[in-house]
Amino acid sequence: MRKQISLRYRQAGVDISWQELILTGSATEAAYLVLREMLREGDLVALESPCYSGFLHQVKKFKLKLLEVPVDPGLGLDIDALESRLRKGARPRLLITVPNFHNPTGALMDNERRIRLLDLAMRYDFYILEDDVYGGIHHGVRRCPPLISLGRERIFLVSSFAKSIVPSMRLGWLIGPSDFHNSMLERFRTLSLGNSRLTEQALALFLSKRQFDRHLRRLRKESRIRMAEFRKRILQWPLDLRVSSPEGGFWLWLELPAKIDTLKLQKRALEKGITVSPGPIFSPSGGYRNYLRINCALPPTESMLKHLDVLGKIASDMA
To answer: Which CATH number, 3.90.1150.10, 1.10.510.10, 2.60.60.30, 3.90.226.10, labels domain 213-318?
Structure first.
């Protein structure tokens, strides 16, 4: 299994040997291992803002200080804002980022920002936790290499097959600086009895027979079509709004009129049988109250599109 994952990273421009990989039950478990390894109570952690809600749940368990760094829905992490805070004395131990098709905005961090981020990590002595679960779900011809392709000394990469195959496929992995490999492997062994050998063998066979490549090509095409259909429908809502235009992944990030509270919108939508993700759940400080994340992972059936129309009507009534 590890050899198959290693091969795919080499094809993406990252020279990772299979011996460097630690297999886990999920990307979430892999991220938890990194947090346990690197952080102590009271440490400062830099989080993207907005940020994947799963990371928020994890860091809250560690009693950490949080530094919010804004994310541009088109360009990714705001490196100028991060550098400004660092110059003013902020000293995070770890920065957590989703550079490829960020959750929830869908942003793809541009190469200049990636290079600057690595430089800041070296200069200000912090580590980076990179979540690359969406990296393979790109809408363009080529995969954007993960951040770790630019340097290995400061980056922990976590990923899984949950987004690229099915959520129930519980297998993830972790790659980190060599100095931490043995201690993280030992930590994993104390927390888990290991992964299912049957799952590993089935996945390894799936990857080795090139079936996964055909599946990914179909998934990328479907993702592109679904996102375009959802975005087109949302832009027909009878109110002023901004909708992100991601180049991969599954998420659309909506900015609604300032007077709309998406927590209240969520409650009204649930009464109609519609589930949405309001902006505040992606913010450590409860911000983004007029923002909404739309999941485009499901097919744009007529029923689904009608639900979007109903959601637009609810939003317009609140504007």
So the answer is: 3.90.1150.10
